[in-house]
Specification:
Length: about 325
Amino acid sequence: MAPPVGIEPTTYRLEVRRSIQLSYRSITHHKSTGMPTTVLPMRSRNLVVLAAVCFATTGTAQQLGPDSSSPLGVAAIRFFIGSIMLFLLSSVRPKRHLVSDRRPLATRVWAVAAFGQALYGAAFFSAVRSTGVAVGTVVALGSAPLITSAITAISSRKSPSLSWLGTTLFAIVGMSLIVVSGKESQVTVSGVALALCAGLGYALFALGSKTILSSGVSSELAMAKVFGVASLMLAPTLFFVDLEWLLHGDAIVMVVWLGVVTLALAYWSYATGLRQLEPSQTTMITLVEPVVATLLGAAVLSERPSVLAWCGIVVVIAALLADSRNASKMLMHNRLR
């Protein structure tokens, strides 16, 4: 095909080849997912928001459960129930053959993701007990996206965008307003260190899960294996905690809810969204969790958020909307290139 007048033949051939490649990728992506590429990022972000909503019910469920329950015991049993549900889900869902040009995953990738989740579960509950809900939540959830971005920047030698960094810090400020409003905080060095370990654990989980999902493993099977291994890592803690609280009826309801909703459903949704997003994006989006937890506390537990908490809710929502807008602009820019 002859190039238009005024355009060099070599340049024209390169542009035609690039256009064909982009069209092929778009068609292939549409066939494998059933929706156009412009819809996928927003759908993925909504799935991560759904996961954050499920995560947010954890505190309310524990408040409605027995007071004698052990945090480590609850975490371990939640992992067991959730991983079983994820394995069942992976066995009944139709198998999809995702195209990938990557080599089979090394065992260490699964180990890192599972260790990260086990570390997050154990360290977060211990941090909350040591330094309180407010400080523990702010340090753990606030540090997770920053640690994720730092690890990504070191490994890929690519620094995060200023827009992402700005919206993330803005969201962390809003989250801090929510969790510290009307609460007495007792900062301890050990508690903050444990909370930072929880943030590191979640970052390792997010990065490891992204690698696993990029290899073509289905979301439910990936999470089932990760949490299955994490359950084995936490299993020894059951020998050192009192499990008599499991004899209460409300305890059964609590652990089933935690395992099915806050783990199986939440992490299937999270992993499905993570497939089309970067780990730093997903850890930032999950900062909406304290917003939903505050609203649930007001609706279910008759708690009354202060004006400062409502200001924090507005700040977090504004940061998430700004981040979503920036992501949409970036997507359109990449498509036009």
